[in-house]
Amino acid sequence: MMMDSALLLLLLWALIGTTSPQASAGPCVERLQGGERKTRACPRTCKSDAECGSKRQCLCDGECGLSCVAPGRTCPWPLHSNENLVFRLVSATPSFSALLEVHCKPGLTLPDGLDVTVRRCQGDRQWSGDEPICAEAQSPGHTPPPTCPLPEEVINTFSIHGDASVGTSIRYSCLSGADVVGSRENFCQDNQTWMHPHPVCKKLFCQPPKEVQQGYVVAVQKTEYEVAFDIHYLCKKNYRLDGPQKITCLSNGSWSASPPHCRARCVIPAERSRVVIGGVKRWPFDVTDAMVPHGENVTFYCKHPKKQCSFTAAQACFDGKLQTPECYLGKPKQAVPVICTRTSQPLLRQRLLYFLF
Ligand SMILES: *[C@@H]1O[C@H](CO)[C@@H](O)[C@H](O)[C@H]1NC(C)=O
Ligand SMILES: *[C@@H]1O[C@H](CO)[C@@H](O)[C@H](O)[C@H]1NC(C)=O
Ligand SMILES: *[C@@H]1O[C@H](CO)[C@@H](O)[C@H](O)[C@H]1NC(C)=O
After folding, report:
1. Which CATH fold would you assign to the domain 215-264?
2. 252 Cβ inside 6 Å of ligand 2
3. Where would I find the beta strands (DSSP E) of 128-287?
4. Is 250 in the pocket of ligand 2 (CB under 6 A)?
5. Lowest mean pLDDT among 132-146, 166-180, 251-265, 273-287
6. I need a surface site. Which of 14, 49, 58, 325 has the fewest CB within 10 A?
7. Which of the four CATH numbers 2.10.70.10, 3.40.50.720, 2.60.120.10, 2.40.50.140 does domain 1-143 have?
């Protein structure tokens, strides 16, 4: 602030100096040529008052140098051009060579970082220079505070709470959910080094999965399995896999899925009639072991309780269990409203066929 005030005084002195009306020995500059000059139009140049007529005087007009100006004419005042700016007239009146201080509203600052700029009322009745544009104030600490380095592998391993600037501390937790081994908290020292080494995340392992009855694990059995380890499963003969063929140890120590089941096949609970298996009509004793694998559908023929015909009813084999449908032989308990299918045969003929074989 002290420095800014000193600068302002210096600036004021310089501006006042240039407005000195001394024609001959004054510090007034030579009129600058168009390209070097910021002021658009300059009044007529002169060397003495005599050249300027009765209403004008030969006065120093900033970059315009000595010019014929009417000292009583004023520059625009008050000014309301921009809501971010605060204007203060330093001179008593806004007339020729009057000074105007331009501040930014609190919290904003001039592009050069100064608090104030000074504009002078020129001979062309305009304030010198351009209207400044205020920007967000940049506090003395606007340069980001120094920080301690956080290597990429640390950022990728941990969720870090707090910030890594000098004089502050951070806390670590493992992204994988594993335990932190080492100091959970760290402090960024003045020389931008960490007080403690970064911790590590305890490596997670998967526990042996539940055993699969009637199944084999196609892997070396271990007491714990490292991340990304795969276990493949096979079922014993005549058992069918129900679930994933492979499970993988995930980085959080869980398996990608529950182990599968090995499901048993079912005895076809029919002896005296044919059934449909896989779309083919067969005698149960023609099927290997008279059994179907887990998940297989078996279609039975049921006798219609009233009509002399049969209709079909399907049942699925589930892990060794396959029941005959309610309507099947000797179990016609409820009078289910059924439709005899076109493919169904009269029951008599079926019975007859049975006896023939
Ligand atoms: C940083 O400062 C700490 C504590 O003042 C000190 O123990 C450590 O040796 C310094 N490290 C370096 C690289 O200067
Ligand atoms: C492990 O990660 C998997 C997949 O991201 C998720 O489904 C499972 O719930 C996690 N297990 C634990 C114990 O966090
Ligand atoms: C058995 O039938 C069910 C229901 O109609 C069907 O979803 C399943 O795919 C069938 N199974 C086989 C092995 O055809």
Report:
1. Complement Module; domain 1 (2.10.70)
2. yes
3. 135-136, 158-161, 169-174, 180-181, 185-187, 200-201, 205-206, 215-218, 225-226, 230-235, 240-242, 246-248, 261-263, 266-267, 275-277, 280-282
4. yes
5. 132-146
6. 14
7. 2.10.70.10
